Structure prediction request, 466 residues.
Amino acid sequence: NQASGGVIAKLAEQKVWNGKAGKVLELHHLSGIAAKSVILVGLGDVDKITAASAFQAGGIGAKIAASRERESIAFAADHLPEAFHLQVLVGSLCGGVGQDLFRQEKSLFQCAKITWLDTKSSLADEANKTAAAMNWARRMVNLPPNELYPETFVEHATQFLLNSGVSLEVWDERKLREQNCNALLAVAQGSIRPPRLLIATYNPAESKSVPVAIAGKGVTFDSGGLSLKPTESMTTMKCDMAGAATAIATIQLAAALKLQQPMIVAVGLVENLISGSNFKLGDVIKSRQGKTIEILNTDAEGRVVLADVLDVLMERKPTCIVDLATLTGACVVALGTDIAGVMGNDQEFIQQIQAAAEHVGEYVWPLPMYSFFNEQVASKIADIKNVGDGRWGGAITAAKFLENFVGTTPWCHLDIAGPAFLDKPKPWMDAGGTGSMIRTLLEWLKEPASRFGSRKVNTSEGIDIP
Ligand code: BES
Ligand code: MN
Ligand code: ZN
Prediction:
């Protein structure tokens, strides 16, 4: 405003641009300003700015800027408190990145040179790394299922984690069989693409605390299997590995930012397809943990995969477990497309995740886990069945199923079926993968998970419970 001789104040006076949240104005060749154009993005009333609106404002500016090719873009948001400033920066690095991976004519022109005015380097560094992790997860979700399947997911993850300080262990079919991962294998058996289980560990030097575990659902395509989905529900089912992408992105980010908290991530990678070798309705499968599962709907495959993934993590005695899964359409019915459902066996843990989400401007909301829902996953011929009695409360019955595989370890389940994928673009982000929950988990991991992370390993006895 100063440099332009008060032009911006005048525009506000004349009500050309009112600065309301999300309102945009692009000005060209302003005298007194060297930049070819200036994009104003409204943040609304100063006292009503939230982490979410800050992220969105950054994204809106970046998306407008990306509508054509530009040499460089400089963002200015240094007048905001640091937590909001950070979100503007992250948003500004996500908004220009689109889903048009395979278009010759791009709809968004990602600018190679993005800078921020008056931003201290530690903040810029955190923003760069956070956005890089989010954009990696978004890209994984956006890759089509003929390109991204269990084996290629592993290749991408290996590449992404190269020299990151995170080590990888890959279980192939033989190892999975050896390890009795029969539940995961049952879902995979309808596809000619072999499944994988990927274990990533981050162990910062000298850290003696017990790792936090994260599990991810990595169904690289979900046709529903014999309980086949109709076309309209199947078209976006490449997004069904978003939990796995989020989990890998989060451990990479934690390592990049040198967090003190050791972590272990496991993701179950399968395609849920349809063929003569499918798992069937009525099948009874013995999970790795030992509980038998009666399959009554092959489209409730995510929980079956996660049963074994959670058990693999449990064996490593983590201090707590978070799982991320595009698990149920029912969760989207309950909370809409923008909010993740959070469920678990530990109220305080759930509250910590909610608080972390609030801090970074993501939306999570708890659904109740009353024990009477257990009756709905009881089976007559096996220990448990993979669907509830009807469709009501489907997000909860799915979580209740998972609860069977975490014992008494504090566990928090994030159903991201809504927020992981945008069917339509938002003003601040293109359609497709969103990178949802990476910022929330990062925020939560920064505080070495308070009560959980402070448990130290008792070297001879395993976990020393305070
Ligand atoms: N991957 C789907 C859930 C989903 C739905 C993710 C919409 C993203 C958007 C999951 O495997 C599934 O099909 N769930 C079923 C469960 C039912 C058969 C109990 C569902 O939600 O209909
Ligand atoms: Mn399904
Ligand atoms: Zn699924």
In short: The longest helix spans residues 121-142. The radius of gyration is 23 Å.
